TrEMBL record:
Keyword Lyase: yes
Record-linked InterPro entries: PCD_sf, Pterin_deHydtase
Family: Belongs to the pterin-4-alpha-carbinolamine dehydratase family.
Alphabetical keyword list: Lyase
Keyword flag Ribosomal protein: no
Catalytic activity: (4aS,6R)-4a-hydroxy-L-erythro-5,6,7,8-tetrahydrobiopterin = (6R)-L-erythro-6,7-dihydrobiopterin + H2O
Name of this protein: 4a-hydroxytetrahydrobiopterin dehydratase
Length: 267
């Protein structure tokens, strides 16, 4: 794909006349080849399939449904108001008790230093693996999640399979003191990733969607109690221990990678 594009490019550069005589379709194909791989097909599909408009009736119906959903969800976890973008502080004890603890009983957990879905970022994530009955249900759930994600402007990492959807969310830069993390170019100072009210909101909305729609109509399957033992920090101290541990790992790994790069440069 890239090689076809690459072999075409010199002819554009070397021969403007020949380039002009080529059909625009070829150029468009060429551009498409360059653009499409940057966005996974599944994600394009999800957004393209989002409903574009709704009638007054369905607006009214969805408002009623939304109120009903809010009541159902509030029975186990309130949705926090979105924090201002400039005040993305890590969750405090009250937030953990109020928003995360009820979610732990629904198989959400805090993953630390998880590279499985994101090879370059470690540290804390709020995560859950959902189970569905078939691929149609999985695709539908992903589409519904994509709508919530767009509304929240908070983008979790998502991996999916035939009947499972793995979600993990973190806030890339939390407010607070900066911590030096060495990057590819050398040492930089930045605030580390962490968990904020944005992550709690997103997780609660996705949980609400799954419970009220997918579990309710049988397309979602309850996650059994025999699922793997999950990490569920209930106090700020426990959360900070995890954060410190994962950051230490992140920094050590980056330093190691830097050293390896230097080593290969000198060879
Ligand atoms: C400016 C914009 O709001 C931010 O870059 C958002 C976008 N989506 C995001 N998604 C997630 N998961 N974490 C973030 O910190 C984040 N930041």
């Amino acid at each position: 794909m890239y090689s076809r594009t690459a072999s075409y490019l010199p002819s554009i550069i070397l021969s403007p006349l020949r380039f002009q005589s080529r059909s625009l379709t070829t150029l468009r194909t060429c551009r498409r080849e360059l653009v499409i791989p940057r966005r996974p097909l599944s994600v394009r599909f999800l957004f393209d399939a989002a409903p574009s408009s709704s009638t007054d009736d369905s607006d009214a119906a969805s408002t009623v449904a939304a109120q009903k959903n809010a009541e159902t969800l509030n029975s186990y976890a309130p949705i926090p108001s979105p924090p201002p973008q400039s005040l993305l502080y890590p969750l405090v004890q009250e937030d953990i008790s109020r928003y995360l603890k009820p979610m732990y009983t629904r198989r959400w957990s805090v993953k630390w230093n998880n590279r499985q879905l994101h090879p370059t970022k470690g540290t804390l994530f709020l995560a859950k693996t959902f189970k569905l009955v078939d691929y149609e249900a999985t695709m539908s759930f992903l589409r519904d999640i994509a709508i919530i994600v767009r509304e929240e402007n908070h983008h979790p990492e998502i991996a999916f399979n035939y009947r499972t959807v793995k979600i993990q969310t973190q806030t890339h830069r939390i407010a607070g003191p900066s911590i030096p993390i060495p990057d590819a170019d050398g040492k930089i100072i930045r605030t580390p990733p962490g968990l904020t009210l944005n992550d709690a909101r997103l997780a609660i909305r996705i949980e609400k969607l799954f419970t009220d729609v997918y579990l309710a109509d049988g397309r979602g399957r309850p996650t059994g109690d025999n699922a793997n033992v999950l990490t569920t920090p209930e106090t700020l101290e426990e959360m900070e221990v995890l954060a410190a541990r994962s950051l230490r790992r992140l920094r050590t790994d980056k330093t190691k990678r830097l050293a390896e790069n230097e080593h290969s440069d000198t060879e």
